[in-house]
Amino acid sequence: MGQTAVKKRSSIWFLFIGSVLLLVLGSVVFQEKRYAWISFGIAVLACLAILYSFDRRNTHIRRIVLISVMTALSVSGRFLFAAVPAFKPMTAVIVMAGMYFGAEAGFLCGAFTALLSNFYFGQGPWTPFQMVSFGLIGMLAGICHKPLKRSRIALVLYAVFAGAFYSVIMDVWTVLWSQSSFEPKLYAAALLAAAPFTILYSVSNVIFLLLMWRPLGVRLERVITKYNV
Amino acid sequence: MSENQRLLMRLHPVTILCYISVSMGIAMFCMNPVMQGCSLLGAGIFLWMVSEHIVWQRIPVFLCFCLVMAAVNPLFYHNGVTVLFYLNGNRITLEAVRYGLCMSSMLGSVFLWCLSLPGIFTGDRVQCLLGAVSPKAALVCSMTLRFLPMYVRQMEKTKEQQRLLGLYRENALLDRLKGNLKVFAAATTWAFEHSMHTADSMQARGYGTCRRTQYHRQRFKRTDAALCTAIAVLAVTTVIFIKRGKAAMQFYPITDALPLGTESMTAYVCYAVICLSLPFLMAAARIKNHAAGRNR
Q1: Each residue's pLDDT tens digit, B40-82
Q2: Closest Cβ opposite residue A51 in set B134, B185, B191
Q3: What global pTM score does this model have?
Q4: Is A28 on the interface with B (CB under 8 A)?
Q5: Measured on CA atoms in the order A153, A155, A157, A160, is the torsion positive or negative?
Q6: Do residues B248 and B31 make contact, with C-beta atoms less than 8 angstroms apart?
Q7: Residue A167 pLDDT
Q8: A chain contacts of residue B133, beta-carbon cutoff 8 Å
Q9: CA distance A147 to A159
Q10: Is residue B203 domain-resident?
Q11: Does A66 touch chain B (CB under 8 A)?
């Protein structure tokens, strides 16, 4: 017990010192691309923070295995629809994971989906951003799981929101990496250029979530009650 | 496995990660044509050595990406004093074009560095790195990678069986969609059940009774320590001399002349040593190998 407390405290210190160092170094050393550097570091630290808390907590092994099952399902979804750009069932599976297994599982499922599928589809400085945005989509689904489980309308609204949210975050990345500062005009242009993709994301999310809601939901419910996860 | 892969396999993943992140990191944050050139050259040779087939697949995409990035800048930024021409009443300036070129080569080199990652960071090396941060996360990753082919196989099996039972027509789109959904649902049920068995057997074998350790073949040897130290020292020197020699150029409103003082030259040399030494070593090994093969 004492040891875990020490570990917990040390990881919090690590994160704290890490973020302070990041800000100071980022603004002093790198004049050019200061924002890109700091935002990249914050994204990495955010993922590390969640990983640390997941690692320290005593999670039941069944839960861990279920998280990897959901991750595998969503990654295979990306493979299945690799030929169609932006039309992917990934987000739907991540949202389902968040809804039924809680916010942390949702975040992990999203983050690992982005990390692992990028090994096949192209790793890059965008990976931490994708991890955070997919993770947050799963996490928010976990936080507001009650209305999502109850009504279809809430689900459709969330699906549209998730598509837009992903686009909005990834366009921040695009602007920060192509310019040394955040230019609202360029951001608006990037959002506009990505609008067809945003619509496709949202539409695919709605379709896949509506398709999966019942069949996958019933099965997840069953696993949870049967095995007491 | 090629000779180059073997050369890389001898290094610890931490060393390679250190090398790539330092080469990429410095190039990303120092806008200077010399640095960008070094980084582009280093990344190109490195990628060529690590995975040759990727180079040919990706070069068209890569060139388009760079050109678009270079073109976007002067269209959106009208700072700078040297006006080349007017487009829709907006100034297109020489400074913005220069900045766009420099920036697109920066993004291009980052793109190339990242393309070489999957060739180096194979499953066991990712496992080794991730396990150092969080063993549980590494466990989730390795389980996911194991489940992927298993699910594909299971879905194929389920599909075959459904087809054999004649449960859906394959010539009707709606029927096929429904059939696929059914297959997916059946396979998920199976996946959940199967995963619970996995979990129970892991528990039965004592998962969670003590700290989780993992075996990997990577060892952090003396060469790795020396290389990491060398990279760190050179990187710090480069950053200091970039600052002192003002090697990071200002593009607006007037582009600085290329800094060529002693201090900035030191920065260039240090950076070139960092990012070019490993690719050149690998290239030399390959050339030697080829020559030996021809003589035989």
Answers
A1: 999 999 988 888 777 777 778 888 888 888 888 888 777 777 7
A2: B134
A3: 0.81
A4: no
A5: negative
A6: yes
A7: 92
A8: 48, 51
A9: 13
A10: no
A11: yes
Burial class (CB in 10 A: 0-12, 13-18, 19+), A6: exposed
What does the alpha-carbon distance between residue B35 and residue B247 come to, in Å, rounded to a whole number? 9
B176 touches chain A (CB under 8 A): no
Question: What residues contact residue A219 under an 8 Å CB cut-off, 6+ apart?
Answer: B185, B188, B189, B192
pLDDT in tens, B214-234: 788 888 889 899 999 999 999
Distance CA B262, CA B266 (A): 6
In this predicted structure, the answer to whether residue B1 has a pLDDT above a threshold of 70 is no
The DSSP symbol for B171 reads S
CB-based contact B114 A122, cutoff 8 Å: yes
Class of domain A3-227: mainly alpha
* Closest residue in A to B134 (Cα–Cα): A55
Residue of B76, B195, B203, B244 to mutate when probing chain A, most A C-beta within 10 A: B195
Closest chain A residue by Cα to residue B69: A178
Q: Report chain B's terminal Cα–Cα distance, integer Å.
A: 20
Q: Is residue B27 part of a domain?
A: yes
Q: What is the distance in angstroms between the Cα of B184 and the nearest Cα belonging to chain A?
A: 9
Query: How long, in residues, is chain A?
Result: 229
Query: Is position B212 within any domain?
Result: no
pLDDT confidence of residue B251: 77
Which residues does chain A have with pLDDT short of 50?
1-2
Assigned domain for B181 exists: no
Q: Which two tokens stand for residue B90?
A: 């907006």
- Provide the residue range defining the domain that includes B99: 3-126+217-295
| Rounded mean pLDDT, B160-170 | 80
Which residue among A33, A37, A108 places its CB closest to the CB of B140?
A108
**Number of structural domains found in chain B:** 1
Q: Which residues of B touch A73 (CB under 8 A)?
A: 151, 188, 191
Determine the pLDDT at residue B126.
Answer: 83
DSSP line for A177-203: HHSSS--HHHHHHHHHHTHHHHHHHHH
